[in-house]
Protein backbone atom coordinates (compact mmCIF):
# COMPACT_ATOMS: atom_id res chain seq x y z
CA UNK A 1 0.00 0.00 0.00
CA UNK A 2 1.24 3.50 -0.81
CA UNK A 3 1.95 5.86 2.09
CA UNK A 4 -0.95 7.98 0.88
CA UNK A 5 -3.25 4.95 0.90
CA UNK A 6 -2.16 3.87 4.38
CA UNK A 7 -2.60 7.36 5.80
CA UNK A 8 -6.01 7.73 4.18
CA UNK A 9 -7.13 4.39 5.59
CA UNK A 10 -6.00 5.32 9.11
CA UNK A 11 -7.99 8.54 8.93
CA UNK A 12 -11.06 6.75 7.57
CA UNK A 13 -10.95 4.34 10.51
CA UNK A 14 -10.61 7.19 12.99
CA UNK A 15 -13.64 8.94 11.49
CA UNK A 16 -15.72 5.77 11.29
CA UNK A 17 -14.99 4.87 14.91
CA UNK A 18 -14.71 8.38 16.35
CA UNK A 19 -17.44 7.72 18.91
CA UNK A 20 -15.96 4.41 20.08
CA UNK A 21 -13.90 4.31 23.26
CA UNK A 22 -10.75 2.81 21.75
CA UNK A 23 -9.53 1.52 18.38
CA UNK A 24 -7.03 -1.29 17.81
CA UNK A 25 -5.42 -1.74 14.40
CA UNK A 26 -2.57 -3.75 12.92
CA UNK A 27 0.51 -2.15 11.38
CA UNK A 28 2.43 -4.94 9.70
CA UNK A 29 2.62 -7.83 12.19
CA UNK A 30 2.12 -5.61 15.27
CA UNK A 31 -1.16 -4.53 16.94
CA UNK A 32 -1.42 -0.84 17.85
CA UNK A 33 -3.86 1.21 19.90
CA UNK A 34 -4.87 4.30 17.91
CA UNK A 35 -5.56 7.38 20.08
CA UNK A 36 -7.25 10.53 18.74
CA UNK A 37 -9.35 11.94 21.62
CA UNK A 38 -7.89 14.52 23.99
CA UNK A 39 -8.68 12.51 27.14
CA UNK A 40 -7.03 9.32 25.82
CA UNK A 41 -4.03 11.19 24.42
CA UNK A 42 -3.59 12.98 27.76
CA UNK A 43 -3.12 9.70 29.65
CA UNK A 44 -0.01 8.90 27.59
CA UNK A 45 1.50 12.33 26.94
CA UNK A 46 1.04 13.75 30.44
CA UNK A 47 2.82 10.82 32.08
CA UNK A 48 6.43 11.21 33.22
CA UNK A 49 6.79 7.42 33.10
CA UNK A 50 5.19 6.43 29.77
CA UNK A 51 7.99 8.00 27.71
CA UNK A 52 9.35 5.01 25.76
CA UNK A 53 9.27 5.47 22.00
CA UNK A 54 7.80 2.68 19.86
CA UNK A 55 9.97 0.11 18.09
CA UNK A 56 9.12 1.92 14.83
CA UNK A 57 11.71 4.53 15.86
CA UNK A 58 14.51 1.94 15.81
CA UNK A 59 14.85 2.56 12.07
CA UNK A 60 16.34 5.99 12.77
CA UNK A 61 18.87 4.63 15.29
CA UNK A 62 21.61 3.97 12.70
CA UNK A 63 21.59 7.70 11.84
CA UNK A 64 20.59 9.37 15.11
CA UNK A 65 21.78 6.83 17.68
CA UNK A 66 19.94 7.26 20.97
CA UNK A 67 19.76 11.02 21.17
CA UNK A 68 16.93 13.15 22.50
CA UNK A 69 14.39 11.86 19.96
CA UNK A 70 14.98 8.14 20.50
CA UNK A 71 16.46 7.69 24.00
CA UNK A 72 14.49 6.80 27.11
CA UNK A 73 14.79 6.49 30.88
CA UNK A 74 17.67 8.15 32.72
CA UNK A 75 19.61 8.86 29.53
CA UNK A 76 16.71 10.84 28.11
CA UNK A 77 16.10 12.74 31.37
CA UNK A 78 19.79 13.67 31.74
CA UNK A 79 20.13 14.67 28.09
CA UNK A 80 16.92 16.73 28.17
CA UNK A 81 18.17 18.69 31.20
CA UNK A 82 21.50 19.36 29.51
CA UNK A 83 20.05 20.47 26.18
CA UNK A 84 17.05 22.55 27.32
CA UNK A 85 19.19 25.67 28.04
CA UNK A 86 20.38 25.70 24.41
CA UNK A 87 16.84 26.73 23.39
CA UNK A 88 16.77 29.75 25.71
CA UNK A 89 15.12 32.88 24.27
CA UNK A 90 18.36 34.89 24.13
CA UNK A 91 20.06 32.14 22.15
CA UNK A 92 17.14 31.86 19.74
CA UNK A 93 17.44 35.60 19.13
CA UNK A 94 20.90 35.02 17.66
CA UNK A 95 19.41 32.71 15.04
CA UNK A 96 17.02 35.29 13.57
CA UNK A 97 19.79 36.79 11.44
CA UNK A 98 20.34 33.40 9.78
CA UNK A 99 16.62 32.96 9.19
CA UNK A 100 16.31 36.40 7.60
CA UNK A 101 19.33 35.83 5.35
CA UNK A 102 18.15 32.45 4.10
CA UNK A 103 14.58 33.70 3.60
CA UNK A 104 15.94 36.53 1.45
CA UNK A 105 17.77 33.99 -0.73
CA UNK A 106 14.42 32.22 -1.13
CA UNK A 107 12.78 35.52 -2.11
CA UNK A 108 15.36 35.98 -4.89
CA UNK A 109 14.60 32.49 -6.21
CA UNK A 110 10.85 33.14 -6.05
CA UNK A 111 11.15 36.42 -7.98
CA UNK A 112 11.84 34.37 -11.11
CA UNK A 113 8.32 32.94 -10.85
CA UNK A 114 6.42 36.24 -10.52
CA UNK A 115 3.56 36.48 -13.05
CA UNK A 116 4.57 33.11 -14.49
CA UNK A 117 2.94 29.68 -14.62
CA UNK A 118 2.21 27.75 -11.38
CA UNK A 119 5.26 26.03 -9.90
CA UNK A 120 5.87 23.48 -7.15
CA UNK A 121 7.44 25.37 -4.23
CA UNK A 122 7.95 22.38 -1.94
CA UNK A 123 11.63 21.69 -2.67
CA UNK A 124 12.64 25.38 -2.61
CA UNK A 125 11.05 25.83 0.82
CA UNK A 126 12.65 22.63 2.10
CA UNK A 127 16.14 23.65 0.95
CA UNK A 128 15.69 26.99 2.74
CA UNK A 129 14.77 25.17 5.96
CA UNK A 130 17.77 22.86 5.50
CA UNK A 131 20.13 25.83 5.17
CA UNK A 132 18.65 27.39 8.31
CA UNK A 133 19.00 24.26 10.43
CA UNK A 134 22.53 23.56 9.15
CA UNK A 135 23.79 26.99 10.11
CA UNK A 136 21.93 27.18 13.42
CA UNK A 137 22.71 23.59 14.48
CA UNK A 138 26.29 23.29 13.25
CA UNK A 139 27.39 26.81 12.36
CA UNK A 140 27.94 25.57 8.82
CA UNK A 141 26.57 27.30 5.74
CA UNK A 142 26.12 24.49 3.20
CA UNK A 143 24.37 26.64 0.58
CA UNK A 144 21.68 24.05 -0.16
CA UNK A 145 19.40 26.63 -1.79
CA UNK A 146 21.98 27.31 -4.48
CA UNK A 147 23.52 23.83 -4.57
CA UNK A 148 20.91 21.15 -3.99
CA UNK A 149 23.29 18.56 -5.47
CA UNK A 150 25.92 18.82 -2.72
CA UNK A 151 26.90 15.42 -1.31
CA UNK A 152 25.59 16.16 2.19
CA UNK A 153 22.24 17.53 0.94
CA UNK A 154 21.74 14.46 -1.24
CA UNK A 155 22.63 12.21 1.70
CA UNK A 156 20.09 13.87 4.02
CA UNK A 157 17.28 13.28 1.55
CA UNK A 158 18.43 9.80 0.62
CA UNK A 159 18.57 8.73 4.26
CA UNK A 160 15.13 10.17 4.98
CA UNK A 161 13.68 8.30 1.99
CA UNK A 162 15.34 5.04 3.07
CA UNK A 163 13.86 5.35 6.56
CA UNK A 164 10.39 6.01 5.12
CA UNK A 165 10.75 3.02 2.81
CA UNK A 166 11.86 0.69 5.59
CA UNK A 167 9.05 1.75 7.94
CA UNK A 168 6.38 0.67 5.48
CA UNK A 169 8.12 -2.56 4.35
CA UNK A 170 7.90 -5.22 7.12
CA UNK A 171 10.34 -7.63 5.44
CA UNK A 172 13.02 -4.94 5.71
CA UNK A 173 12.53 -4.59 9.48
CA UNK A 174 15.03 -7.28 10.67
CA UNK A 175 18.57 -5.88 10.52
CA UNK A 176 20.09 -9.08 9.12
CA UNK A 177 17.62 -9.06 6.21
CA UNK A 178 17.96 -5.33 5.61
CA UNK A 179 21.72 -5.74 5.21
CA UNK A 180 21.14 -8.20 2.36
CA UNK A 181 18.93 -5.85 0.32
CA UNK A 182 20.09 -3.00 -1.89
CA UNK A 183 18.36 -0.54 0.46
CA UNK A 184 20.51 -1.72 3.36
CA UNK A 185 23.70 -1.27 1.35
CA UNK A 186 22.57 2.21 0.26
CA UNK A 187 21.84 3.03 3.89
CA UNK A 188 25.38 2.09 4.95
CA UNK A 189 26.93 4.24 2.22
CA UNK A 190 24.69 7.19 3.04
CA UNK A 191 25.37 6.94 6.78
CA UNK A 192 29.11 7.19 6.16
CA UNK A 193 28.59 10.51 4.34
CA UNK A 194 26.29 11.91 7.05
CA UNK A 195 28.38 10.84 10.03
CA UNK A 196 31.72 11.84 8.51
CA UNK A 197 30.34 15.31 7.73
CA UNK A 198 29.02 15.80 11.28
CA UNK A 199 32.19 14.36 12.85
CA UNK A 200 34.34 16.75 10.82
CA UNK A 201 32.25 19.77 11.83
CA UNK A 202 32.36 18.79 15.52
CA UNK A 203 36.15 18.38 15.48
CA UNK A 204 36.61 21.70 13.65
CA UNK A 205 34.35 23.53 16.11
CA UNK A 206 36.03 21.92 19.13
CA UNK A 207 39.46 22.96 17.81
CA UNK A 208 38.22 26.51 17.26
CA UNK A 209 37.01 26.67 20.85
CA UNK A 210 40.36 25.35 22.14
CA UNK A 211 42.13 28.10 20.23
CA UNK A 212 40.07 30.68 22.10
CA UNK A 213 40.88 29.25 25.52
CA UNK A 214 43.39 31.43 27.29
CA UNK A 215 42.25 34.54 25.45
CA UNK A 216 40.26 37.18 27.31
CA UNK A 217 37.07 36.48 25.43
CA UNK A 218 34.96 33.36 25.49
CA UNK A 219 34.12 31.75 22.14
CA UNK A 220 30.43 31.47 22.92
CA UNK A 221 30.05 34.93 24.45
CA UNK A 222 30.30 38.21 22.59
CA UNK A 223 33.77 39.74 22.22
CA UNK A 224 35.27 42.84 20.68
CA UNK A 225 37.63 40.79 18.55
CA UNK A 226 36.28 40.50 15.01
CA UNK A 227 37.53 36.91 14.89
CA UNK A 228 35.23 35.93 17.72
CA UNK A 229 32.12 37.49 16.24
CA UNK A 230 31.12 34.17 14.76
CA UNK A 231 27.51 33.18 15.12
CA UNK A 232 26.58 30.82 17.87
CA UNK A 233 25.23 27.42 16.90
CA UNK A 234 23.62 24.66 18.94
CA UNK A 235 26.91 22.82 18.52
CA UNK A 236 28.75 25.51 20.51
CA UNK A 237 26.37 25.02 23.42
CA UNK A 238 26.58 21.22 23.21
CA UNK A 239 30.37 21.35 23.41
CA UNK A 240 30.07 23.42 26.61
CA UNK A 241 27.11 21.57 28.15
CA UNK A 242 27.60 19.64 31.39
CA UNK A 243 25.37 17.43 33.50
CA UNK A 244 24.71 17.92 37.23
CA UNK A 245 28.04 16.25 38.05
CA UNK A 246 30.00 18.43 35.64
CA UNK A 247 30.45 15.74 32.98
CA UNK A 248 30.60 16.90 29.36
CA UNK A 249 29.06 15.16 26.37
CA UNK A 250 31.34 12.91 24.33
CA UNK A 251 31.82 13.61 20.61
CA UNK A 252 29.51 10.64 19.88
CA UNK A 253 26.85 12.08 22.21
CA UNK A 254 27.15 15.43 20.45
CA UNK A 255 26.89 13.80 17.04
CA UNK A 256 23.66 12.11 18.11
CA UNK A 257 22.12 15.45 19.04
CA UNK A 258 23.41 17.41 16.05
CA UNK A 259 22.12 14.71 13.69
CA UNK A 260 18.82 14.73 15.58
CA UNK A 261 18.51 18.51 15.13
CA UNK A 262 19.21 18.05 11.42
CA UNK A 263 16.65 15.28 11.02
CA UNK A 264 13.92 16.79 13.21
CA UNK A 265 14.56 20.42 12.42
CA UNK A 266 14.27 20.81 8.67
CA UNK A 267 11.64 18.43 7.27
CA UNK A 268 9.08 19.29 9.94
CA UNK A 269 9.47 23.05 9.59
CA UNK A 270 9.60 22.82 5.81
CA UNK A 271 6.30 20.94 5.81
CA UNK A 272 4.71 23.54 8.10
CA UNK A 273 5.90 26.38 5.88
CA UNK A 274 4.62 24.70 2.73
CA UNK A 275 1.20 24.00 4.21
CA UNK A 276 0.96 27.60 5.46
CA UNK A 277 1.76 28.89 1.98
CA UNK A 278 -0.82 26.57 0.44
CA UNK A 279 -3.58 27.61 2.86
CA UNK A 280 -2.81 31.33 2.56
CA UNK A 281 -2.94 30.99 -1.23
CA UNK A 282 -6.26 29.13 -0.92
CA UNK A 283 -7.86 31.67 1.45
CA UNK A 284 -7.26 35.19 0.06
CA UNK A 285 -9.25 36.85 2.87
CA UNK A 286 -6.88 35.37 5.44
CA UNK A 287 -3.88 36.39 3.34
CA UNK A 288 -5.17 39.98 3.20
CA UNK A 289 -5.37 40.08 7.00
CA UNK A 290 -1.76 38.90 7.23
CA UNK A 291 -0.69 41.58 4.74
CA UNK A 292 -2.48 44.25 6.77
CA UNK A 293 -0.70 43.10 9.92
CA UNK A 294 2.68 43.11 8.14
CA UNK A 295 2.01 46.64 6.86
CA UNK A 296 1.15 47.81 10.38
CA UNK A 297 4.43 46.42 11.74
CA UNK A 298 6.82 47.20 8.87
CA UNK A 299 5.11 49.94 6.86
CA UNK A 300 6.96 50.47 3.56
CA UNK A 301 10.30 49.51 5.07
CA UNK A 302 12.25 46.53 3.74
CA UNK A 303 14.31 46.24 6.95
CA UNK A 304 14.92 42.76 8.40
CA UNK A 305 12.52 41.57 11.08
CA UNK A 306 13.52 41.76 14.74
CA UNK A 307 12.31 39.59 17.61
CA UNK A 308 10.09 42.50 18.64
CA UNK A 309 8.52 42.53 15.17
CA UNK A 310 7.83 38.79 15.27
CA UNK A 311 6.14 39.18 18.64
CA UNK A 312 3.78 41.75 17.08
CA UNK A 313 2.73 39.36 14.30
CA UNK A 314 -0.04 37.77 16.36
CA UNK A 315 -2.40 36.99 13.49
CA UNK A 316 0.39 35.36 11.49
CA UNK A 317 1.10 33.19 14.54
CA UNK A 318 -2.56 32.13 14.57
CA UNK A 319 -2.26 31.27 10.86
CA UNK A 320 0.71 29.02 11.60
CA UNK A 321 -1.07 27.35 14.53
CA UNK A 322 -4.22 26.74 12.49
CA UNK A 323 -2.08 25.33 9.68
CA UNK A 324 -0.48 22.91 12.13
CA UNK A 325 -3.94 21.92 13.31
CA UNK A 326 -5.06 20.97 9.81
CA UNK A 327 -1.71 19.63 8.63
CA UNK A 328 0.45 18.65 11.63
CA UNK A 329 4.01 18.17 10.38
CA UNK A 330 4.29 14.91 12.33
CA UNK A 331 0.98 13.15 11.58
CA UNK A 332 1.39 10.49 14.26
CA UNK A 333 3.87 9.44 16.94
CA UNK A 334 4.09 6.19 18.83
CA UNK A 335 4.91 5.01 22.35
CA UNK A 336 5.37 1.53 23.80
CA UNK A 337 3.91 1.25 27.30
CA UNK A 338 6.54 0.35 29.89
CA UNK A 339 3.86 -0.31 32.50
CA UNK A 340 0.12 -0.98 32.68
CA UNK A 341 -2.22 2.00 32.47
CA UNK A 342 -5.95 2.69 32.32
CA UNK A 343 -7.61 4.53 29.42
CA UNK A 344 -11.36 5.19 29.58
CA UNK A 345 -11.71 2.43 32.16
CA UNK A 346 -9.88 -0.17 30.09
CA UNK A 347 -6.66 -1.71 31.40
CA UNK A 348 -3.97 -1.34 28.74
CA UNK A 349 -1.17 -3.84 29.43
CA UNK A 350 2.54 -3.14 29.52
CA UNK A 351 4.16 -3.63 26.10
CA UNK A 352 1.20 -2.23 24.14
CA UNK A 353 2.12 -0.02 21.18
CA UNK A 354 0.10 3.20 21.16
CA UNK A 355 -0.15 5.57 18.20
CA UNK A 356 -1.20 9.16 18.85
CA UNK A 357 -2.83 10.57 15.69
CA UNK A 358 -2.80 14.41 15.76
CA UNK A 359 -4.27 14.64 12.25
CA UNK A 360 -7.49 13.01 13.52
CA UNK A 361 -7.28 14.50 17.04
CA UNK A 362 -7.22 18.01 15.56
CA UNK A 363 -10.45 17.29 13.68
CA UNK A 364 -12.59 16.47 16.71
CA UNK A 365 -15.83 18.37 15.92
CA UNK A 366 -16.55 18.79 19.64
CA UNK A 367 -13.37 20.83 20.03
CA UNK A 368 -13.00 22.36 16.56
CA UNK A 369 -16.43 22.89 14.90
CA UNK A 370 -16.32 22.82 11.08
CA UNK A 371 -12.92 21.26 11.57
CA UNK A 372 -11.94 21.19 7.88
CA UNK A 373 -12.31 24.96 7.61
CA UNK A 374 -9.17 27.11 7.85
CA UNK A 375 -9.95 29.62 10.61
CA UNK A 376 -6.90 31.20 12.30
CA UNK A 377 -9.27 33.00 14.69
CA UNK A 378 -9.66 29.70 16.56
CA UNK A 379 -6.33 30.53 18.19
CA UNK A 380 -7.24 34.00 19.40
CA UNK A 381 -6.82 33.97 23.17
CA UNK A 382 -10.53 34.49 23.78
CA UNK A 383 -11.37 31.49 21.57
CA UNK A 384 -8.72 29.07 22.81
CA UNK A 385 -8.68 29.66 26.57
CA UNK A 386 -10.23 26.73 28.41
CA UNK A 387 -9.49 24.31 25.56
CA UNK A 388 -7.97 21.02 26.71
CA UNK A 389 -4.22 21.41 25.95
CA UNK A 390 -4.12 17.80 24.77
CA UNK A 391 -6.68 18.49 22.03
CA UNK A 392 -3.96 20.23 19.99
CA UNK A 393 -0.52 18.60 19.98
CA UNK A 394 1.44 19.47 16.81
CA UNK A 395 4.63 19.40 18.91
CA UNK A 396 3.46 16.56 21.17
CA UNK A 397 2.83 17.65 24.77
CA UNK A 398 3.77 16.88 28.33
CA UNK A 399 7.30 16.07 29.56
CA UNK A 400 8.38 14.69 26.18
CA UNK A 401 7.12 17.56 24.05
CA UNK A 402 9.25 18.93 21.21
CA UNK A 403 12.19 20.81 22.71
CA UNK A 404 12.53 22.91 19.54
CA UNK A 405 8.96 24.14 19.15
CA UNK A 406 9.79 27.81 19.88
CA UNK A 407 12.61 27.61 17.34
CA UNK A 408 10.23 26.10 14.76
CA UNK A 409 7.48 28.70 15.27
CA UNK A 410 10.03 31.50 15.15
CA UNK A 411 11.48 30.17 11.89
CA UNK A 412 8.08 29.77 10.24
CA UNK A 413 7.08 33.27 11.29
CA UNK A 414 10.33 34.82 10.06
CA UNK A 415 10.28 33.09 6.67
CA UNK A 416 6.57 33.68 6.02
CA UNK A 417 6.88 37.34 7.03
CA UNK A 418 9.60 37.96 4.44
CA UNK A 419 7.80 36.05 1.68
CA UNK A 420 4.49 37.79 2.31
CA UNK A 421 6.10 41.23 2.41
CA UNK A 422 7.17 40.58 -1.19
CA UNK A 423 4.50 38.38 -2.77
CA UNK A 424 0.81 37.73 -3.17
CA UNK A 425 0.14 33.98 -3.25
CA UNK A 426 -2.42 32.18 -5.41
CA UNK A 427 -3.23 28.55 -6.14
CA UNK A 428 -5.64 26.55 -8.26
CA UNK A 429 -4.82 23.35 -6.38
CA UNK A 430 -7.95 22.10 -4.62
CA UNK A 431 -7.81 20.48 -1.18
CA UNK A 432 -9.31 17.28 -2.58
CA UNK A 433 -6.51 17.12 -5.16
CA UNK A 434 -3.84 16.87 -2.45
CA UNK A 435 -2.43 13.37 -2.04
CA UNK A 436 -1.25 13.20 1.57
CA UNK A 437 1.75 11.00 2.24
CA UNK A 438 1.84 10.38 5.98
CA UNK A 439 5.18 8.79 6.80
CA UNK A 440 7.42 10.45 9.35
CA UNK A 441 6.32 13.82 7.96
CA UNK A 442 2.96 14.87 6.51
CA UNK A 443 3.63 16.05 2.98
CA UNK A 444 1.76 16.21 -0.34
CA UNK A 445 3.14 13.57 -2.70
CA UNK A 446 2.04 15.74 -5.65
CA UNK A 447 3.67 18.94 -4.36
CA UNK A 448 2.39 22.43 -3.49
CA UNK A 449 1.64 24.41 -6.66
CA UNK A 450 1.37 28.19 -6.38
CA UNK A 451 1.48 31.34 -8.49
CA UNK A 452 3.16 34.56 -7.38
CA UNK A 453 2.38 38.21 -7.91
CA UNK A 454 4.64 41.00 -6.71
CA UNK A 455 3.19 42.97 -3.81
CA UNK A 456 5.26 46.12 -4.12
CA UNK A 457 7.26 47.39 -7.04
CA UNK A 458 9.74 49.25 -4.78
CA UNK A 459 10.86 45.91 -3.33
CA UNK A 460 11.86 44.56 -6.74
From TrEMBL:
Q: Which PROSITE patterns match?
A: CYTOCHROME_P450
Organism whose genome encodes this protein: Alligator mississippiensis (American alligator)
Q: What does the UniProt keyword field contain? A: Heme, Iron, Metal-binding, Monooxygenase, Oxidoreductase
Keyword Lipid metabolism listed? The answer is no
Pfam families recorded for this chain?
p450 (PF00067)
Q: Which family does it belong to?
A: Belongs to the cytochrome P450 family.
Query: Under what name is this protein listed?
Result: Cytochrome P450 4V2
Respond yes or no to whether keyword Metal-binding is given for this record. yes
The cofactor(s) it depends on are: heme
| UniProt GO molecular function | heme binding; iron ion binding; monooxygenase activity; oxidoreductase activity, acting on paired donors, with incorporation or reduction of molecular oxygen
* Residues binding heme, per UniProt: 402
Record PANTHER family: CYTOCHROME P450 4V2, CYTOCHROME P450 FAMILY 4
Q: Which InterPro entries match?
A: Cyt_P450, Cyt_P450_CS, Cyt_P450_E_grp-I, Cyt_P450_sf, Cytochrome_P450_Monoox
